[in-house]
UniProtKB/TrEMBL annotation:
GO cellular component: membrane
Location(s), subcellular: Membrane
Family in the record: Belongs to the major facilitator superfamily. Nitrate/nitrite porter (TC 2.A.1.8) family.
Record's bilayer topology term: Multi-pass membrane protein
UniProt-recorded name of the protein: MFS transporter
Annotated Gene3D superfamilies: MFS general substrate transporter like domains (1.20.1250.20)
Single annotated GO MF: nitrate transmembrane transporter activity
Amino acid sequence: MTTRKLSKLNIFSFSGIQMRTFHITWLTFFVCFFGWFGIAPLMPIIREDLHLTKPQIGNAIIAAVSMTVFARLLIGRLCDTIGPRLTYTGLLLIGAIPVMGIGLSHSYESFLWFRLAIGVIGASFVITQFHTSAMFADNIKGTANAVAGGWGNLGGGVTNMVMPLILAGFVGLGYTNPEAWRLAMVVPGVMLLIMAFVYYRYTKDTPEGNYSEIERTKSADSNPVSFAQAAADWRVWALFLAYGACFGIEITFDGVAALYFTDTFKLDLATAGLLAGVFGFMNLFARAVGGIVADKVGAKYGMRGKGLLLAGVLLLEGLGIMLFSQTGSLAIAVVAMLGFAMFLKMANGATYAIVPFVNKRAVGVVSGIVGAGGNVGGVLAGFLFKSESISYEQAFLYIGMAVAVVAIVVVGTRFDKKVAIEPIAVPEVA
């Protein structure tokens, strides 16, 4: 069994600490989505139970992603210092509390505070990308990060499909809707606690072992630089904007899709949740495609090629969102959604195919800043959906325009440092 970073990703392998960690980290991120967005597909019922107005729902959407901005900045630094294993374990234990506690809400104010606290779980993404980067060589980092992130993000789609069924199950046991949505949220809370045990017990910080078990001062790359030093690089902030324009819009859509389809096309909760789930389900392959293509482009055209690829898929995403916003047909809306979802998720993968190479001594910090950008994008988009004077259709139109502008910014950013390819002759895990 090798203790080196793997130069190949064999998704059917569970052997060795590298592949075991890979599978546990994406599965943990998948479960985190149940805690983070489990409430979203239940919002039509919660809106009726708590008598929420459109601005109040908008505030809840913003709260769900705003706390994650700060959490991701902190979590990135913790990954660099105490390691991803302890960081993830602690996050899961803390995050489970508000997920199960939100059922205690009987007013808008208490609901909003719990929704804000739940947003901490969104920082799980940074740990997932950091930990995956630690297990794979440079030539395959983009692919590995994209697959792990995509399969984890898949939880956002499955959540939209499954949580209405869990609620229906409690209703079938004789509970009323107000009781059922509260009990339904206990399920993802318990799942988070289970994954906390699994992560602590079965993963390691690096292929060589946990931070406490290895000497991390043997190379300059193992000495983390300060937050200020890492943040001084404009490329970090270009990626911050890019991730806001793709992942930020993804989590916003996860939060409003069920309501949008319910209100615009008069669908029932289960059907609206199913369509919203299809959007998230594309993470099964779309984000991975972005990472795979980015690795191939990077091998041939370097970081400049990766940057242009990212700009291209962002532009196509923006155009697709604008088309989605202008259709009054359910069939065309679904087709447009599938189109912009493909490019959005490819942009997610392409972004994190660049992140590990910006500053190898600050992978956690850079991952945290860029990841926070995703949530800043979600917060800004949330304000559009909060407004009484802007319809959901107009909000999507403005979002599409903004994404196209970010694509232009990315085109003007030079990601042209050479991609350092580690030796490929690394023995594969037995």
